[in-house]
Amino acid sequence: MQKTILIVEDEFVIAMDLKVMLERQGWRVLGPVAGVANALRLLEDERPTVALLDVNLGDQLVTLVAEALRSRGVPFAVASAYDKPELVGGAVLAGVPNVGKPTSERNLLEVLAKLSTS
Amino acid sequence: MDLEDLYRILRTGHVQAQGIVDTVPDPMLVLDSALTVQSANRAFFRTFAVDRYDTIGQHLYELGNGQWDIPELRHLLGEVIPKSSAVMDYRVTHDFPQIGKKIMLLTARTVFNPDNVSHLMLLSIVDITERSRKEAEFEAVFGELRHRLKNVLGLVRALANQTKAEGISGEEYRKVFLGRLHAVADANDLAFSDHGEDSLEALVARATKPFQTTPETIIVEPGPPVALASKEIMSLSLLLHELATNAIKYGALSAPAGTVRIRWEVEQGDHPLLRLSWRESGGPPVRKPASTGYGTQLIKFAIAYNLGGQVEQKYRTEGFEAEIVVPLERAARPD
């Protein structure tokens, strides 16, 4: 079955890039979405294999999405410019793999592969 | 030497000593071995808002209703000082009843007086409350700047990755990529400088400038003032850049007499909207392209994705047109 990934990223150029890159690698992309409400709406309809989250979404944080994913048992990674995303986005982000920003393609694919097989 | 002379010598010595203590810019106390205040300088009275007569001759821990009876200070003077003759920059935080919370660096030094075999102690108190606040502020600003820098690099990486490289020369790729990079740099610059209500006007002027071969190439009609957030500036900057690039490649700006007219208005109401129009004329006859490239996708995405707006692109034979509608209130955004 094709693996699906939910992408939450508020910068449109980065969101577009991630979508194209992951689709080329055979992923089906849910979103990308720029904010919490749209992400939660997508999660109502479908349970993705994994998720990739930006932490700081302009004037809001991704925390609620991370909590929703955790309660549904969906593994996720963050793509954040913060060294310690949990200090900004809360305890739910502690210990979550951070693929960093700028995000290297190889690192991202490795982390996603690990998340989706665990 | 009579009594008069002796008094004069003592008095001169005292005046000199007091003069030295007063010259020190930071608060300073001279204590005897029983911790009674022998002398204090002006900076001390000023910083801690106390009076000379309530200070001199008092025991340190009884000063100002016991406000200097600080556990850390007791530890410093009672245990640290007897074992070493000097302590440098010992940090103490204390909430004073009158002047509030102070962060201080204490430096204490004992001075042995061979004449009467007694000890004096010099205690200087540097008030770093303001400095600490500024340092904390600086840390916060620096952290934010670092975060922004990484975000911008992420954006540049995405642009480089998304700019088409297939089937074109390295020179062509470089030209297209650098054009986009320039639009990002401009937007970044504008977002940092405060143009307030005139941000849209400043943005349009800046984004169109590289394409103004004659003053008539791109005509910007004066419009109402619109303040923009940094995200809007980034999206609109890239949008205008892509529109202008397309106009040079395929549209009105590919012909010498071609022009572009930009105008905008704000539709007031419960949900104010910005309507910006881009109208090309005087170029070669327009045909709708068979396939749309990354630039067109970028134009759509720039407005739709996080501004919750729309772009309508009309390929009219006499000239290409784009109508951009962006909600101006944040509540109307897809969050």
TrEMBL record, chain A:
Keyword Transcription regulation: yes
A single GO BP: phosphorelay signal transduction system
Stored SMART domains: REC (SM00448)
UniProt entry keywords in alphabetical sequence: Phosphoprotein, Transcription, Transcription regulation
InterPro entries with a match to the protein in the record: Bact_response_regulator (IPR050595), CheY-like_superfamily (IPR011006), Sig_transdc_resp-reg_receiver (IPR001789)
Entry-annotated residues carrying 4-aspartylphosphate: D54
Residue span, Response regulatory domain: 4-116
Signal peptide: none
Stored Pfam families: Response_reg
This protein's name: Response regulator
Species the sequence originates in: Mesorhizobium atlanticum
UniProtKB/TrEMBL annotation, chain B:
Top-rank EC class of the record's enzyme: transferase
MF terms in GO: ATP binding; protein histidine kinase activity
Catalysed reactions, semicolon-separated: ATP + protein L-histidine = ADP + protein N-phospho-L-histidine
Domain annotation Signal transduction histidine kinase HWE region: ranges: 144-225
Record keywords, A-Z: ATP-binding, Kinase, Nucleotide-binding, Phosphoprotein, Transferase
Entry annotated with the keyword Transferase: yes
Transmembrane segments: none
InterPro entries: HATPase_C_sf, PAS, PAS-like_dom_sf, PAS_4, Sig_transdc_His_kinase_HWE
Enzyme Commission number(s) of this protein: 2.7.13.3
Protein name as it appears in the record: Blue-light-activated histidine kinase
